Structure formats: C-alpha cells, structure tokens
Q: What sequence folds into this?
C-alpha cells in the first residue's frame, strides 16, 4: 500500500520535472561546468598521445592524429617507472588491507565490548584523524631514522598505518555501533568469542563500508607524497609521486612524455575507483549516519 | 584454540583487538607530536648525538627575525579562508543540482569527483604546465580569444601566484565536498520536501527551511575537513612553486619542512610546526567537543 503510493508520487513528480524550465537551465549549467572540469584531464590524455611536433603545431584540444605510444615507453624508461611502480604497488598492497584489518578490529572492540575507557580511547583515536601529519614530517623522520628504517618498506608502511587508522576507526565505529544487538548477542551467549563474532558476523555485514574505506585508503596511499619525500631518499626506493616530481624537474620540456608520466601515475587509482565506486557513496552514508 | 579464546575475559579480548591499531598509532602518530614539541625547545641539526636545550629561543627567532614566517602565516590564513569558502560552496551547489533526477547525473558526479583521486603532486605538475607563460594552456586560450592583455605569468607573479595555485586546489577538492553533501542529502526527508512544495514554498524556501537545517551536521563536517585539509596544503605548493617566487607563496607546513629537512634546523622547523599545530587545535578541539555532545544527546 505505502509502496504503491510513493511509487505513484515519484511518477507524477518526474512528469512535472520534465517540463520544468528551471531544471533544463540547471542541467545546461551543470553540463558546461562538467566539460570545464574534465578539460584538464582530456588535455593530459591528448597530449600524452601526441608527438612533440604535433603538440607544438596543433590546438591543445585537438585529438591526436597519429597516436604516439612511444611517449609512454619513453617516460617509463627515463622516469625509472619500473622501480617506482613496483615500490608503490608493494607499499599499497601491504598497507591498505593491514590498516583496514587493524582499524576494523579496534573499532569493533570500542563499539561492542564494554570497557571503562572505551569512550576516552575513541576520542584518542579521533584526535589523530584531525591532526595533519604534514606538521610532523621532521619528528617522523627522526623516529623512523632511530629505528634504522629510512629507505625501507616498513619505514613508510608503519607511519602510513598510524595516520590511516584514526579516520577508519571513526567511520567503522559509527557503523558497528548501529548494528542491532540481537545480531551478536545470541552468538555470544552460545559461547562464541568476540573474535569469532567479529569475523563471522561483523566483517561480512560491513563489506560495503570496508569497500568505501578501501577506495579512500588505496587512493591516499597511492598518492601520498610528503611522507615518502622525507622517508625514502634512495632513488631505488622511491614511489610513483616522487618519481613524477623528479621527472618533472628533469624533462619538463618534453611535454608528451611528461603527460604520459602523469597519466601512468594517475591511472591505477582511477581504475580502482571505477571498480569500487558503486559502493562508495552508499558505504560512506551508512558509516556516517548513526543509528 | 578457539575454546581457550572464548574463555578469556571480554577485557582481554578487547585489548587484543585494539592492541595493533593502538600500538602503531601511538608510536608513529602520537609520539612524533610530542617529539615536535620537545624539539621546538632545542637546537639540533638532525644528526648530532647531542641536542641542546635553548628554551624559547627558536620561538623568539621565528616571531621576531624570520620574515618568511610571517609571509607563510599570512598565506596560510588567506588560503584557509578561501578553502573554507569556495570548494564547499561550489560543492554544495553541485550536490544540490546533481541530487535532482537529471539526465546523465551519474557520469557528471564521476567527472566532478575525478580530480579528487588524482595525486596532488600530479595535479601540481598538470597545472604548472597549463600555467606555463609561453606554452601553457591558459595563455594559449587567451591568445586565441585575442585577449593578449590578460596574459599573465600565472605562477611567476608574486601578486597572483597564490591565487593561481588556489584555483588548482579548488579544481581538485570541489568533488570531495560534493560527495559529502550528496551523502548528507540522502538523509533529507523527502516527504518534508514534498509537503513544503505542496504548501506553496518555492525552491529557495524549501532549501532555506527544509534542506539546509537537515544538512547541519554534514555542513559542520565539511567545514572542519576543509579547514584541516587546507592547513596541510603541502604537495600542491611543493610541486607548483616550491614556495616561490621569492618565498611569496610560502606556507607554514612547507616552511617547517624546509627549515628541518633542507636547512637542517630542526628546532626552528619544529617551532613552526608547533604554531601550526596550535592553530589546528583551536579548530579541532571545539569541533570534537561539539560532536561528542551531539552523540551524547543522541544516546
């Protein structure tokens, strides 16, 4: 009954909307704006596929006549991309799942197990989500250097974990808190440990939120620059953003290759976003809206 | 194995679950924050085994003798104010527009969000090239429109370099605000909107009296996140101007980094960090208290 009425209502609203001049105008504005917004990306893609002669001779937004794939292979070689790509991949593939695991475990315990200090602990974690690590680059360097971990994978992964955990704990805590008690209580009474309840019940139902956090974390780990700049000084340990920065410094006038380098740096993050994006808005909403 | 874990008290289980996150967070995030305060009272080049206590000397130097610090502070404040006004406002307008049932709204949302996924350092590289005074896109477009008089050295002119950079920053972060507002708009009660429309309210009145009040929490989150992300503007400045020309686009986060890691004066660098940290705390602490009070009310 209620379903029927709402359905009818939306239908009438849609018919009314189609004739609404305000919405037509709005649509036009949004489209023009979207074209402006996507223009830099199109420009990068086109330029990356043009030879340098063609870049100089043609308009920036003319599609390439002959596709110059050599820009990509050239930039790959000169920019040492094989190395930086591998480093970025190793760091991201270890850091992202591990961080999500740590955060989910902590968030579950804070939301679901009665502890005297859980509120204080949550606040302690939340605090970290608000503090920009860019402020602390020097002491982070000193600390990692003290452990002898400069120019190593653990040397970047550990600080990355530390600064990823707070936000994820915050979001997952909100989500776990909203899960109905009945779902976990029966299992607990039957003698299951919290670890089992967490693994068998809470992890499966939080997959959409975890997917959303996975995108966010993948993107920010993949793109991270400032901490890598301080902690990775050996060229052979550099990540993609560091490689791109150095490429820009050395070959800034080879526009075709420079844009190919930008495209290659950005590409994996865009692909991951496209794969997981359908979870993105829904996952964020379910985490942010408290029950 | 499983049985023995079930035997453990909830407290022990909780500690085991929280342990890893807590350990890594306390060591690599909280300790550096304490260390930066300690360092700010010391003189150290980052290598010597000995660190010398100098009291407030680093602060005295920065506040009285370091002219770049004041430029950086002014730029950081300007940047923060701009970052709190423009990206959230544009993001809200886009979210309101793209929340309507419009043709192609899904790909349009994706387009506006796309720059958020691009590495800030890549954004800096892209825009630096587009701003190039000779071959850059902007000046080419202006030339083809016969607007040569508007041609600028976008990043080389001290008067406008900061604002040129800010345009790139806005391009990147509008999508972020937009997604948060879109998520918030899903929580607006549709029946309330319809009721208001039936009662004869126009679009502006519906927005002002129904939508906006419902977005109160989202608005607070967006504003705080915008403020924090603007305070950490580092990559984009490093990649576009490096603080130049003549330190005119210097910012606190970058200047702290340069003092410590390039000039090897960890004391002064840390003192700048502490000042930036204090600025951040004056924004964060009231927000945390407010959000906790909200949660308390909800329970």
A:
């Amino acid at each position: 009954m209620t379903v029927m009425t709402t359905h009818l209502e939306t239908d009438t609203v849609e018919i009314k909307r189609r004739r609404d001049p305000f919405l037509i105008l709005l649509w036009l504005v949004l489209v023009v704006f979207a074209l402006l917004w996507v223009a830099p990306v199109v420009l990068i893609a086109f330029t990356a596929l043009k030879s340098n002669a063609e870049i100089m001779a043609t308009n920036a937004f003319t599609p390439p006549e002959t596709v110059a794939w050599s820009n990509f292979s050239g930039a790959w070689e000169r920019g040492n991309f094989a190395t930086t790509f591998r480093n970025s991949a190793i760091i991201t593939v270890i850091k992202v799942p591990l961080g999500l695991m740590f955060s989910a475990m902590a968030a579950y315990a804070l939301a679901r197990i009665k502890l005297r200090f859980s509120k204080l602990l949550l606040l302690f974690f939340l605090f970290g989500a608000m503090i920009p690590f860019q402020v602390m680059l020097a002491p982070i360097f000193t600390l990692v250097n003290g452990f002898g971990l400069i120019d190593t994978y653990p040397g970047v992964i550990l600080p990355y974990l530390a600064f990823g955990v707070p936000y994820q704990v915050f979001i997952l805590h909100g989500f776990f808190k909203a899960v109905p008690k009945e779902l976990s209580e029966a299992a607990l009474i039957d003698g299951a440990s919290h670890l089992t309840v967490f693994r068998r019940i809470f992890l499966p139902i939080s997959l959409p939120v975890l997917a959303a956090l996975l995108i966010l974390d993948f993107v920010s780990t993949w793109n991270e620059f400032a901490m890598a700049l301080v902690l990775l000084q050996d060229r052979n340990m550099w990540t993609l953003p560091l490689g791109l920065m150095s490429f820009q410094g050395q070959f800034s006038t080879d526009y075709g290759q420079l844009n190919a380098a930008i495209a290659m740096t950005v590409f994996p993050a865009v692909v991951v976003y496209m794969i997981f994006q359908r979870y993105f808005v829904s996952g964020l909403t379910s985490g942010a809206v408290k029950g | 194995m499983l049985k023995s874990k079930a035997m453990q008290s909830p407290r022990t289980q909780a500690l085991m679950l929280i342990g890893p996150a807590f350990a890594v967070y306390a060591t690599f995030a909280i300790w550096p924050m304490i260390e930066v305060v300690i360092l700010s009272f010391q003189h150290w080049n980052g290598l010597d085994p000995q660190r010398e206590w100098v009291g407030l000397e680093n602060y005295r130097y920065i506040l009285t003798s370091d002219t770049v610090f004041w430029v950086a502070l002014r730029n950081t404040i300007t940047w923060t104010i701009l970052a709190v006004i423009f990206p959230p406002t544009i993001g809200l307008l886009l979210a309101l527009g793209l929340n309507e049932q419009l043709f192609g709204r899904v790909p349009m949302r994706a387009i506006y969000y796309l720059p958020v996924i691009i590495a800030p350092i890549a954004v800096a590289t892209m825009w630096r090239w587009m701003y190039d005074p000779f071959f850059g896109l902007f000046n080419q477009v202006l030339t083809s429109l016969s607007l040569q008089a508007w041609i600028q050295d976008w990043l080389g002119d001290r008067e406008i370099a900061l604002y040129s950079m800010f345009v790139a920053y806005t391009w990147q972060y509008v999508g972020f605000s937009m997604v948060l507002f879109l998520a918030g708009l899903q929580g607006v009660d549709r029946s309330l909107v319809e009721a208001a429309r039936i009662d004869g309210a126009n679009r502006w009145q519906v927005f002002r009296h129904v939508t906006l009040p419902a977005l109160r929490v989202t608005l607070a989150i967006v504003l705080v996140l915008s403020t924090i992300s603007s305070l950490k503007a580092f990559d984009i400045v490093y990649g576009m101007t490096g603080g130049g020309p003549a330190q005119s686009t210097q910012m606190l986060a970058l200047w702290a980094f340069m003092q410590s890691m390039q000039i090897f004066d960890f004391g002064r660098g840390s003192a700048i960090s502490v000042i930036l940290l204090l600025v951040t705390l004056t924004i964060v602490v009231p927000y945390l208290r407010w959000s906790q009070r909200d949660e308390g009310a909800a329970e």
Observations:
- Chain A has two domains: 2-68, 80-288.
